[in-house]
Amino acid sequence: MERFFLDGAFGTYYRQAGGQCERCEEANLFEPETVLRIHREYLQAGADGIKTNTFAVRPSFSENWRQVLRAGYRLAKEAAGEEKAVFADIGSIQAEETAEEEYLEVAREFCACGAQNFLFETLAQLDDLLPAVALIRQEVPGARIFVSFAAFSDGYTQKGFDYRDLLRRAAQVEGIEAVGLNCVCGPSHVYRLLSQMDRTGLRLLAMPNSGYPANVGGRTVYEDNPAYFAAKLCDIASLGVPILGGCCGTTPAHIAMAVHAVEGKPSQEAAPPTPSLQQARRQGPSPFLNGMETGRKAVAVEIDPPEDLDIERVLSFSKTAKEAGADVITVADSPLARTRADSFLVAARIKRETGIDVLPHLSCRDRNHIAVKGTLLGGAMEGIRNVLAITGDPIIPLENGVSKGVFTFNSYRLISYIKSLSSDVLAASPYAVGGALNVNAERFDAELKRAEKKVECGAQFLLTQPIFTRQAEENLRKARNALSCKLLAGIMPVAGYKNALFLNNEVSGICVPGDLLTALQGKSREEAADLSVRFSMEVIRHVFDCCDGFYLMTPLKRIDLTARLAREIRNFETGRKETL
Asked: What structural domains and CATH numbers belong to the chain?
């Protein structure tokens, strides 16, 4: 098996070498001699191929991105001559709405330059670049295409994809010659990740960082450790990885030592993975999900976590809901983007002190992948078995732009990430994962397609928005016919006229019917409660046969309304069984 060495980092070494441009790619136009010198240093260090200095170049880079790209390719070709390979370097494009088109534009430009070798690197996902791979195959028959993903030490990318799945999928794409890992991790963790996967049939590449950086005086600094890096790259080569190189923090010295160290080692074919620790015994399905499998209608009662330290009210409400026949308490994740106590911590307390099953919501709005995984690990340790993955209500924009959402994931990717973790690190206590379904959407066919995608990503159940209208009921029936997951119909008993007026005017997507609004006007608290419960039960009877349960939303701390509805549902369910 012939080994092939790519170069190391350009950007971090450019800074170390005294480069003056704010973005190293701009040096292709303004410091061409510096770019040539860096390329030549890597070639003298023993690299068989060099990457163009174009990692971040794409249409969104600047108005003159094409000139920057062409200059980068020309300089790399000038440095490499005819004997060494030049790889058109295409870095990860994160903007989902434009990524596919930008990959295509960059690939098309490199093809026009005459590129024969292509490296897509530091990727968090695969699908967006597939049209660009197809374009390269069409424009450059016989092109060499390498694809490399950036996975954290736990094996997941920033978008929540498992590195093993990504490498296997990429290797099956026609035209992709080699797949592997680069960036984010140091060499020790890249070695561990590759050693623990099935490498059979894969042509692998590895370009780890030199290690993990430190912040010194506001600058990101990597330790100068070429001897250590070279030794670890030898370990990676021993796994049967033929294509090697470096990423952030590596220098020509790192590559020179690695080439020398690996030269004396015999080549090996890809070996089976190193055995990992045996996983703990897997628990059975969640009580909430298991109950629906028996045919019993599930009743989920939503209780907002407190805005202060009043956990006793939440615990009291949970006990009331349990006594009324609820199966699970759902805990919202700062609804309407107003800060409340953490949904998972509150859910854990409810479960410990009341014994009822819990379903905390987990929004994409406030957590990056590190916080999401930490939350899920902690929840599993507390015995939480269910999670509702949602986008989260948008944050109210501020003039100074200080308050912003995170949105590392969207709801699809969050569902997929949780399912992947549940078959891996959380296998001993997997989550039943659900999503949201907006039955009030004006274009419900499009909403249904989104729901189908959530199910494909691993959603086992969907909770709907509140049902108030006949159209929403009809949309639920459409969903029942189209989807293969469990459905819980959303029911929100309004607390009174003012509450209904607020929902209609200030909460997006909710429309309390005019006749109910009129009927509530001027009614006492008790009269309004009777009207609201009667209306809600009418909806429940209409949709009873086209759902697997009911998702009851508690308005304005009125647990009396949702508890009353839970009892009414159980009585109605019992009466139906007795008449069969």
From this structure: 4-263 (3.20.20.330), 287-394+403-575 (3.20.20.220)
